[in-house]
Amino acid sequence: MTEMRFAANLKWLFTEVEFEARFDAAAAAGFSGVEYASPYAHEPAELRRRLGDAGLTQVLINTPMGAPGTPTRAGLACVPGLESEFRAGVERGLEYADALGCGLLHVVGGVVPPGVGRDEAFARYVANIAWAAERADGTGVRLVLEAQNKRDVPGFVLDSQAQAAAVAEAVGADRVGLLLDFYHLQVDEGDLIRTYRRFADRVFHLQVADPPYRHEPGTGEIGWRGVFAAVRASGYDGWIGCEYAPAAGTVAGLGWMRTVAE
Ligand SMILES: O=C(O)C(=O)[C@H](O)CO
Ligand SMILES: [Mg+2]
What we know:
The protein is an alpha/beta fold. The protein has one domain (5-257): TIM Barrel (Alpha-Beta Barrel). Helix content is 35%, strand content 14%. It is built from eight helices and eight strands. The radius of gyration is 17 Å and the shape is globular. It starts with a strand and ends in a 20-residue tail after the last strand. The chain binds the ligand O=C(O)C(=O)[C@H](O)CO and magnesium ion (MG). Magnesium ion is lined by residues 146, 181, 207, 243.
């Protein structure tokens, strides 16, 4: 069976120290990979140096998103009228991914804007993802799509894992896959193990956190032993991003890797 590889999400983990110091902190805690949504406030060369010094692999970044509270806070792929901003964001994401040796770019979907119908936003989303897939072809960077739960992100363009998988299939499943985040899946859909198995061959990246509070696995309502057993049994060989808010300190909370994920 495949050994599971966990990546520290540096937006969520090691927030006890400044962002710049989180690389060394993650390596010292035993991580060999990291992810974070937004590298764009930093020069690629600086990030590359920090990764190299700490001996870390950059696993995943997102396309640029708007600031919290703005209409594009969860991405702009579904927003009609912002096609050129969307395309510029994909270009920027690919540029950073290339500089960081990062194999996955999360093309963030977005929230259906007020006054725009869901069908219109979804059609724009599919057209934009198709453009991004074409653009990324041959770059060595694969794209991932994530369904985010509508309790935390009301109006998010993707309704379900099935819908995300259908979009990936429509635009090219060899280069576009799922970012399946068990936290979002539990909140919106449930039936984790069956849903994971149904889409396992489309999953390029996994993320974990436990509802209701989005803390470490083992702090909430998910039966992680069964979930991780299903992941192992599927032969999944990608990374598992730790995208949770530590309940009481990042390092103090890492015990779940030896208990529920053993
Ligand atoms: O919110 C999430 O679950 C994500 O993975 C987004 O990428 C955060 O930016
Ligand atoms: Mg996520």
